[in-house]
Design goal:
single chain; mainly alpha; 64% helix; rod-shaped
Length: 98
């Protein structure tokens, strides 16, 4: 009674398919691991160089009529020095006067 002969030489069709599946699975697992590591590294770099947001303090409430004359004088000086155009000066003055 012959139980079967051992195959010598190239693997059969199933052996080739199995070997291809193992190689493909290993390559995919390696590629996924490399991708995850790269994403983790990029996230760490982004956090390391991120500038923390500083809260902006609310503007201080001015008492009514607080130094209106002084602010108008400042606007006049800026206008005379050429830092403000006529239109900018008129708009800023209108804002101050309400």
């Amino acid at each position: 009674m012959v139980l079967g002969r051992a195959r010598i030489g190239r693997p059969g069709l199933l052996g080739a398919v199995a070997r291809t599946a193992v190689i493909t699975g290993t390559a995919r697992a390696t590629a996924n691991a490399v991708d995850r590591r790269g994403q983790r590294h990029a996230a760490e770099q982004q956090q390391a160089y991120a500038v923390p947001a500083q809260p902006v303090p609310p503007p201080a409430a001015e008492p009514p009529g607080a130094d209106l004359v002084g602010r108008l004088e400042q606007l006049g000086q800026l206008h005379e020095s050429g830092a403000l155009t006529d239109a900018e000066f008129a708009a800023a003055k209108a804002r101050l006067l309400g």
